[in-house]
Amino acid sequence: MWGCGGLSRAARALVAPRGRSRGAGPPPPGRRPGAAAGDHYGQAFQRGPRGFSENYSWKMQLTSNSTRFVCLTEMKSSMSAMKRLYSTSHTTVDSKEMKKFQLLAHRWWDEQGEYSTLHSLNDIRVPFIRDTLLNMSSDHQLGSPLSGVKILDVGCGGGLLSEPLGRLGASVTGIDPLEDNIRTAEQHKSFDPILAKRIQYKPCSLEDIAEEATETFDVMVASEVVEHVADLETFIKYCYQVLKPEGSLFITTINKTQLSYILGIVVAERIMGIVPEGTHDWEKFISPDELECLLDSNGFLVKTVNGMSYNPLSGSWSWIESTSINYAVHAVKTRVKEQSSSREPPSETDKEEHLAEASASTTV
């Protein structure tokens, strides 16, 4: 009988294994299917030094391959995490979300189709935007109340919201990362010569247009969009960048509650088919409190939060007090950019304070 008292931990693991791990490969040559590890090593011992040597070398090869497999797996996992971090830090577009809407790009203007709920949502979201803006300013034209107002409609899709805002007199820029959506929007806009003058569409993301449109827009609308972006905080930072000081941001989205999961996903998508299954990811939903914190920390002041409710029987939306499922937010850009003050040369007092702080930190 072999004694293991003088062997190293690695050697003891080889001659007295506790069992095969998942994915370790087929049993070694000469081992009966279902035979215990002890039986196999007993057979190797009975075959003499050669049998044990063959088994030992096989076990060493297995251990080496397993180690290599684990290392490669960990490396791939780390690389995937880095890719996710990089993508969410530099883009607001989620490629998986884009694939969902790619298949329905030609269906935007079918009022009885997959986007019927968005068509009916116009009955409350358009007046909400219009009335809010009119209450903020008394300077408006009769019949064209939003004349002179520059609006950015992010995630415009086929132009369902851009067109009614354009009919109110606004100058609308609709953007969407899917070119097929923009083609649909352009085609539908062409039927109305007035809209052709007031609306322009661009196949791009928010970060793309932010580079050329800093503090350009009076209003930005993100209706049923924030629950589909890759990085919400990055998205909001770009919202701040493109808006003029005191500009308005309008958001409609879905709360992250158990009720929103049951009604918004299970019932609406899987049971009633009000929206295509897989349209929403509950993990991307956000509560009004969380959204307000994000807005506040990025230079916005939330003015209004209203609950919304959809009646599937009548196919209509209405305002309610509860925000447990759908809600709308109006926020205003308030904070002055800190970079503007940094251009001024520091005073002698500022220099002394900085020197004192530096000295104190060095001492600590």
3D structure, described in words:
With 364 residues, this protein is of the alpha/beta class. 47% of the residues lie in helices and 16% in strands. The chain has 14 helices and eight strands. The protein has helices at 9-15, 37-46, 49-90, 95-102, 116-136, 162-167, 179-189, 193-198, 206-210, 232-242, 258-271, 288-297, 339-342, 348-363; strands spanning 150-154, 171-175, 199-202, 217-223, 243-254, 300-311, 316-320, 326-333. An eight-stranded mixed β-sheet has the order 3-2-1-4-5-8-6-7, sandwiched between helices.
DSSP strand content:
15-25%
Mean pLDDT: 75
Number of E strands: 8
Order of helices and strands: HHHHHEHEHHEHEHEHHEEEHH
Name the assembly state.
Answer: single chain
Q: Count every helix, treating DSSP H or I runs of 4 or more residues as helices.
A: 14
- Which residue ranges are poorly predicted, with pLDDT under 50 across at least 5 consecutive positions? 1-89, 337-346, 358-364
Q: What spatial form do the alpha-carbon principal axes imply?
A: globular
Helix content: 40-55%
Strands of the widest sheet, in order across it, are 3-2-1-4-5-8-6-7
User: What is the rounded Rg?
Assistant: 31 Å
Q: Specify the biggest β-sheet.
A: 8 strands, mixed
Query: SS-based structural class?
Result: alpha/beta
Kindly report how far apart the N and C termini lie: 65 Å
How would you briefly describe this protein structure?
With 364 residues, the chain is of the alpha/beta class. Helices cover 47% and strands 16% of the residues. It contains 14 helices and eight strands.
